[in-house]
Amino acid sequence: MSDKKAQRVVVIGLGRFGTSLAMELIGRGTEVLGIDSDPHTIQRLSGELTHAVVADTTDEDVLRQLGVDEFQRAVVAIGTDLEASILTTSLLVDFDIPNIWAKAISRQHGQILRRIGAHHVVLPEHEMGERVAHLVTGRMLDYIEFEDDYAMVKTIAPAEAVGLPLGESRLRAKYDVTVVGVKRPGEDFTYATAETVVHEGDVLIVAGRTPNVERVAELT
């Protein structure tokens, strides 16, 4: 399979999330086949995407005619039509597409998508709300949560670490986290080592279990 063919992505469902994703992929030089059931949406995006098609993605024959079964990467970004989301994802799984991302509108919806074989489930509204809540209520400057209750935070260096090498401040031993990067005011981020001395006002990138990095971010 050619690299060009492997880099193509089919995005099914061109609401706000699907359109934003598709346009971002196009901006990065990725070929995108966009599919939606609304002719007006397809007409609006026909000049923006590599290909844009009106189709019923719950119909296996239609998807095969469009060559969807030959894609290596697919995104199901269908919004509130749960039946269409689930049936479309199921067909992609039957096609043995190796990388399937599916948008869910609830945790229950996400569980179903995972059970039928979606490799990655995204809850955009929930994840953005959770991220902003962490930023609003804590001392975090940024927050990213991964799978299995693991997260990375960007936070101001806690007072107990200031003036000490990281190995002596024992943040790792006390809170079971790893400081992976340090940024001084006016300078670029650098990788952190046990010998890195933390100064007042430094910004740290801290990784670890979500409750642990939250504790570090709340230190004064």
TrEMBL record:
GO terms for molecular function: monoatomic cation transmembrane transporter activity. PROSITE patterns: RCK_C, RCK_N. InterPro entries: NAD(P)-bd_dom_sf, RCK_C, RCK_C_sf, RCK_N, Trk_Ktr_HKT_K-transport. Residues 138-220 form the RCK C-terminal domain. It comes from the Bacteria. Residues 6-123 form the RCK N-terminal domain. This is Trk system potassium uptake protein TrkA. GO terms for biological process: potassium ion transport.
